[in-house]
Amino acid sequence: MVMKVASLAQGVSGVRREVIDCLLALINNDIIPDITEKGSVGASGDLAPLSHMTLTMIGEGSAYVDGGLLPSNEALERFGLKPIKLKIIER
């Protein structure tokens, strides 16, 4: 997640600041998305793991907190965080 923040923070990926802030909140609160061990097939091989990370960011899927696995919405709630809303920003 730290590497994803570093990449997105360069400002060329077309994501809202809210996405980066959400990732930082996960890192700072030690909320670890439940990501599958095997990646996806493709050129980069990161589509499946990133989709699982994003599930936690939107309050879906599950995440580890203090060594236990919780539904992501409960993990976020525990730290007073709200799931981000996916949307398209038109220019």
TrEMBL record:
SUPFAM superfamilies: L-aspartase-like
EC number, as in UniProt: 4.3.1.3
EC top class, as a word: lyase
Source organism per UniProt: Taylorella asinigenitalis (strain MCE3)
Signal sequence bounds: none
PROSITE patterns reported in the protein's UniProt record: PAL_HISTIDASE (PS00488)
Any one Pfam family match given in the protein's UniProt record, by short name: Lyase_aromatic
GO terms assigned for molecular function: histidine ammonia-lyase activity
Protein name in UniProt: Histidine ammonia-lyase
PANTHER family for this protein: HISTIDINE AMMONIA-LYASE
Keyword Lyase: yes
Keywords: Lyase
Superkingdom, natural source: Bacteria
InterPro entries hit by this protein: Aromatic_Lyase, Fumarase/histidase_N, L-Aspartase-like, Phe/His_NH3-lyase_AS
